[in-house]
Write a structure and sequence with these properties.
Elements: H1 2-9, H2 39-54, H3 60-90, H4 93-99, H5 112-134, H6 136-167, H7 184-196, H8 202-236, H9 252-267, H10 269-272, H11 282-318, H12 333-349, H13 352-382
Helix pairs in contact: 2-3, 2-5, 2-12, 2-13, 3-5, 5-6, 5-7, 6-7, 7-8, 7-9, 8-9, 9-11, 9-12, 11-12, 12-13
Length: 386
């Protein structure tokens, strides 16, 4: 049992080398403090902006708040990009180590996915908030950026998992949901495509729709494999230490964002099908696909809520021993996905009860973001970030 607890503690980020001073994940003692872990903050901030735009029953101030959050996310993301670039400029060898490391105590490579997800959310928010104000040129720009993004994340997902499979031997008792992060950018591609194609002409929307469906399929199938290992780990070992329990919410995200993608892509199926489709008008086929998508999303919805409930109970049981650290962003991003999934379900069934629930979830998410942001900033100021 002692060995198991030691392995759980090993999930904390390792220092850059044995000679460097102990660092805080969000500390600003040097540029070496900036790792891929920090992009979990931009994942969460960007996802909140998406939720504020899509939530039902919103008053004018909600959209304004969403724009403010999006601007904060852009500034936060740009600053992190500058800082991590300077880190690699000062110590070029860290580039390789940050995406590949053979030591099990070093989990930074998994968090490269947080950077990819942050990019997807920036692009999604540009389309939501920017296109209505800027016009056709931004529509075309979003299309080009989408394909560049997809090509990059697909290559990274293949190479990173291949590298990890070949160079590292993992013990299942060490597993945390962070193992899902390398595939997370592909899990966002479906929902990203569904947002972008709303403004795209039919000839551009069709390949994006197909890509969104295919990407979501790949991300979901890899997730199922990881879910199986996560269930075995929970059945055979202790749950993660209290400090790391917020990361359990990461398991909510894949199912939640898959629901969001399936239902939203199903609703826009008419833009993804050729005319004629199988010798018939695409309208009938699109309506059928939409119904199947709604049923599939409903089928998975309670599964996401189940993961949310398990994680919530585990966090509550260890809350007195928790101290602020980067895993606290897991309170936001995965649950933003659950909120978006619920929004899509409510829209599909035109249910006022579900839509009111979405408004409550949105308000709770916003308050949680304020709390997590304030707690982490305060911990940084006092030098007590775990």
């Amino acid at each position: 049992m002692g060995e198991s607890k030691a392995s759980l503690d090993s999930n904390r980020p390792a220092p850059e080398n044995n000679d460097s001073p102990k660092r805080s994940d969000y500390g600003f003692h040097s540029f070496q403090d900036f790792t891929w872990h920090q992009f979990t903050g931009t994942m969460s901030t960007g996802s909140l902006a998406v939720v504020l735009f899509q939530t039902p029953y919103k008053f004018p101030g909600v959209v304004t708040a969403g724009k403010v959050i999006f601007v904060i996310d852009l500034i936060f993301f740009a600053l992190l990009c500058i800082c991590i670039t300077l880190r690699f400029f000062i110590r070029p060898k860290l580039i390789v180590r940050s995406v590949y490391d053979s030591h099990q105590s070093h989990d930074e490579p998994f968090y490269l996915g947080a950077f990819g997800v942050s990019l997807a959310l920036v692009l999604e928010n540009i389309s939501q908030y920017g296109v209505p104000a800027c016009g056709p040129w931004l529509v075309r720009t979003c299309e080009v950026l989408f394909w560049i993004y997809f090509a990059c994340i697909l290559v990274v997902a293949v190479l990173q998992y291949q590298t990890l499979f070949v160079t590292r031997k993992f013990n299942i008792d060490n597993m945390t949901p962070s193992w899902l992060l390398p595939i997370y950018p592909l899990l966002l591609t479906g929902s990203l495509a569904s947002v972008l194609i709303q403004h795209q002409p039919h000839e551009s929307a069709r390949p994006m729709w197909i890509c969104g469906v295919a990407s979501q399929g790949l991300g979901w199938m890899v997730t199922i494999l990881m879910y199986a290992m996560w269930a075995i780990r929970l059945l055979t070992e202790e749950i993660p230490a209290p400090a790391m329990r917020p990361s359990m919410f990461v398991a909510v995200g894949p199912t939640a964002y898959t629901i969001t993608a399936i239902v939203s892509l199903g609703a826009s199926a008419s833009k993804g099908l050729p005319d004629p489709f199988l010798g018939e008008s695409p309208k009938a086929a699109a309506a059928t696909i939409h119904v199947i998508a709604i049923v599939a999303g409903t089928f998975l919805w309670l599964f996401a809520l189940w993961f949310f409930a398990l994680s919530s109970v585990a966090v509550a049981l260890g809350s007195r021993k928790m101290t602020p650290n980067y895993t606290w962003w897991s309170f936001i991003f995965p649950n933003a996905g659950l909120t978006l999934a619920t929004i899509q379900i409510g829209k599909a069934y035109d249910s006022s009860a579900i839509n009111y629930l979405c408004s409550v979830m949105t308000a709770a998410l916003f308050l949680a973001w304020l709390f997590v942001s304030a707690s982490l900033l305060n911990a940084v100021r006092k030098g007590r970030l775990g």
